[in-house]
Each structure stands twice: as structure tokens, then as C-alpha cells.
Amino acid sequence: MQFPPGDPNFVVNGRTVIREDITIYSVVTHMHYLGKAMDIWAILPDDTRVDLVKVPRFDFSWQYEYTLAEPQCLPKGSTIHMKAVFDNSPESPYQHSDPPRLVTFGESTTDEMAVGVFFHTRDAENVSADSTSSQ
User: Fold this and answer.
1) Is 87 helix (H, G, I), strand (E, B) or coil?
2) What is the pLDDT of residue 134?
3) Cβ-contact 1, 105 below 8 angstroms
4) In this predicted model, what pLDDT tens digit does every residue of 13-61 receive, in sequence order?
5) What is the C-alpha separation between 21 and 81, in angstroms, rounded?
6) pTM of the model
7) What domains lie within the chain, and their CATH numbers?
8) What gap in Å lies between CA 27 and CA 119, rounded to an integer?
């Protein structure tokens, strides 16, 4: 990933195909200082769209786990999509370079990332209070 200097709306897209039936319970969105917005959704095998998380005004200081109102079952063959928007312009409230510079993927907060973390179970697992207790 390369974030050009001066671009106030640089878009990064990602997707992954679900290989088995899962149930998602919560999602964490992660970007660094230039992160502006993130949208994560799934397209089911029947082409139904399921919105998982929309963060219209990303704030680096506010990166929380978003618990879904209802757990979302995604069947095998569903595709999870992510659209992340970055602001590498001089007007960005979190711009750390003057003038803005080319920013690339990296671990430092002055680098960038676009990550969605999903807390889920595999539906084939038998996860219940009884299955986790000592016998």
C-alpha cells in the first residue's frame, strides 16, 4: 500500500472469502493517524449484502471493538469486503508530515494499516457453557 501525498480520499479495498460457516459477534477496525473512514460488509452466496460495521469518522484514539446487535451467521462462500479511506492531505487533522509525504504500510503509527479483526466461532464447533467447563 502506498498513500500518495496530498490525497484527501485515498481508498484501500480488501476482501476475503469465508471457507466454512461462521458466526461473527464483533469487529475491530484498525488504521493509523491518516485513517478517515472504514466500511465492512459481507456478500452472501445469494448476493444479499450484510453490513457489519460502518465507521464514517475514524479516530486513531477511538479504536474499539464493535459488538454486533445480533450475531451474524455467514455461510461458507460468503465474501467479507472492506473499504478504508485515508486522508494524506495537509488539511488532515492528524497529518504528521509537513509537507505530506508518501506513506506506506508498516507497524509505526506514522506508517499505515487497514485491518478488520473479526471475533467469531466456526459453526461446526460445539461452543457452549457446558463444553468449556471442567469434567
Assistant:
1) coil
2) 47
3) yes
4) 999 999 999 999 999 999 999 999 999 999 999 999 999 999 999 988 8
5) 17
6) 0.86
7) 2-91+101-123 (2.60.120.230)
8) 6
Nearest alpha carbon to residue 82 among 24, 39, 36, 49: 39
Instruction: Say if CB 39 and CB 54 are below 8 A apart.
Output: yes
For residue 70, which of 82, 52, 54 has the smallest C-alpha distance?
52
Per-residue pLDDT band for 126 (boundaries 50, 70, 90) equals low
The answer to whether 78 touches 18, Cβ cutoff 8 Å, is yes
Residues 42, 47, 48, 52, Cα dihedral to 10°: 10
**Number of residues assigned to the chain:** 135
Grid cell of 14 as nine digits: 480488501
